[in-house]
Amino acid sequence: MPELPEVEALAQDLGRRLTGRAITRVDVAAFSALKTFDPPLSSLNGMIVDGVSRHGKFLDVDVSGTHLVLHLARAGWVRWRDEVPAAPPKPSNKSPMAARVHLDDGSGLDITEAGTKKSLAMYVVRDPQDVPGLASLGPDPLDEDFTPEVLREILDRAGRAQLKGVLRHQGTIAGIGNAYSDEILHTARMSPFKPASSVSEEELGTLYAAIRSELTAAVERSSGLAAAELKGEKKTNLKVHGKVGATCPVCGDVVREVSFADTFLDYCATCQTGGKPLADRRTSKFLK
Hints:
GO molecular function: 8-oxo-7,8-dihydroguanine DNA N-glycosylase activity; damaged DNA binding; DNA-(apurinic or apyrimidinic site) endonuclease activity; lyase activity; zinc ion binding
Number of domains: 2
Protein name: Formamidopyrimidine-DNA glycosylase
Shape: elongated
Strand order of the largest sheet: 1-6-7-5
Order of helices and strands: HEEEEEEEEHHHHHHEEH
Keywords: DNA damage, DNA repair, DNA-binding, Glycosidase, Hydrolase, Lyase, Metal-binding, Multifunctional enzyme, Zinc, Zinc-finger
Structural class: alpha+beta
Number of strands: 10
Strand content: 15-25%
Pfam family, one: H2TH
Distance between the termini: 29 Å
Radius of gyration: 20 Å
Domain Formamidopyrimidine-DNA glycosylase catalytic: 2-93
CATH topology of the largest domain: N-terminal domain of MutM-like DNA repair proteins
CATH class of the largest domain: Alpha Beta
Helix content: 25-40%
Largest sheet: 4 strands, antiparallel
Number of helices: 8
């Protein structure tokens, strides 16, 4: 799933490519992806792109004051094409194509979504705050206003909720997903199951520094890369997420996994849980 660093890099890359160009039309191949009807999609035709920005995991293409907002969900992506076919893409349950954006110089974007679970969402709105998920976002962890004091308030409000879930909840902190929450907690040497309100003042500083350092480093690595390079960059630099069975680069222990119904988390027991493996429903072990 694209998270804050990849979406930030996508916004930068698309901003360089799209700003100043006119959209000639947008073809929708997966009609379930378009979540709005007013303004109509056709209102973008002939309009100039003024810029591309990010809100959490949302991409916001400003088209002469009307906004094309994308949420790529778990398996969505944006692919730049120097030349796009003139014919509209054909709707098909087997095709990953969700939509295609045509530009005035013949180039454009393919908006795609892999897999059968279709969650990608497109919105055409007058104000980005009209997008329901965007309007309810928590603070951006890379904004100057995101201070240790703000994080303390978030953790206290979360009470006994587990740190992993608090970091991932978009209404609490915007932009962090499954992968970077694993990376942040590994860097902070904290259990993903640690209750939020139990974080001490010393641990608060450690967690805050891990959030800022992990995300900042990922953004810096991704900055300037084309969209096609971002997935590989992310995967290469993850230390524990998606690395189950590999060696922890910090202590040499094996990276372990906890599986849930539709997701998973990865961690190092030595670095994060005092050497104790966490309970995993697949092994029927209920460990504290």
